[in-house]
């Protein structure tokens, strides 16, 4: 197995990558960086020229973008059963929700959280349409089944749940009853609880 190094901050999307690594049962090292100057050093910019977190080094391969890292890890650890096999037709539904979360759902929630001014005439050109459409789409799916693609938790659920939790904390979203039940199931997972403990330890490390 390749050596895995995660560059992260406990209040960044790196939390979700830690959670994913725990779901995978992976052995990994965390390099915890402060926002600001730590992300502008030549050493870190050589890893991620955007100066953003998280970034993952998998052997000699560097992956940025939290959704890309999570999707990569799902395939790198097939024994964790966090993604359908390439030959499985359910891979289509998995991709649908993975990309819907990373594009439409996140864009809609960020619009509300940061109060971006969107003119009504612009709505038809936006992939997500509106926050109301996004909520209705997700809620409708979660009313039908326990997880996005059926009975089993997968990487697309991790990505969506992390986004919904952020949106709820930031008051950009009031979760529906189906979303609340969904999040309760997910927050009971041992890997999610392990991530919270790791995040608390990382925050203590940064403030020491």
Automatic annotation (TrEMBL):
The GST N-terminal domain, residue ranges: 1-81
Name of one Pfam family that matches: GST_N_2
SUPFAM superfamilies linked: GST C-terminal domain-like, Thioredoxin-like
Domain of life of the native organism: Bacteria
PANTHER family, A to Z: GLUTATHIONE S-TRANSFERASE FAMILY PROTEIN, GLUTATHIONE S-TRANSFERASE-RELATED
Protein name per the record: Glutathione S-transferase family protein
Organism placement in taxonomy: Bacteria, Pseudomonadati, Pseudomonadota, Betaproteobacteria, Neisseriales
């Amino acid at each position: 197995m390749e050596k895995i190094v995660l560059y992260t901050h406990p209040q960044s999307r790196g939390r979700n990558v830690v959670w994913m690594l725990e779901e995978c049962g992976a052995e990994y090292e965390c390099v915890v960086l402060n926002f600001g100057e730590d992300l502008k050093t030549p050493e870190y910019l050589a890893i991620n020229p955007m100066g953003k977190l998280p970034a993952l080094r998998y052997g000699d391969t560097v992956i940025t973008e939290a959704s890309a890292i999570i999707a990569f890890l799902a395939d790198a650890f097939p024994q964790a059963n966090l993604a359908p096999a390439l030959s499985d037709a359910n891979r289509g539904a998995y991709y649908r929700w993975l990309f819907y979360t990373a594009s439409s759902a996140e864009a809609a929630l960020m619009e509300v959280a940061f109060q971006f001014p969107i003119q009504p005439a612009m709505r038809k050109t936006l992939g997500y349409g509106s926050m109301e459409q996004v909520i209705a789409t997700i809620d409708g799916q979660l009313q039908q089944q326990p997880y996005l693609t059926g009975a089993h938790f997968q990487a697309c659920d991790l990505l969506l749940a992390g986004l919904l939790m952020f949106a709820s904390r930031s008051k950009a979203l009031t979760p529906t009853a189906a979303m609340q039940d969904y999040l309760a199931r997910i927050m009971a997972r041992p890997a999610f609880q392990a991530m919270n403990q790791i995040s608390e330890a990382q925050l203590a490390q940064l403030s020491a």
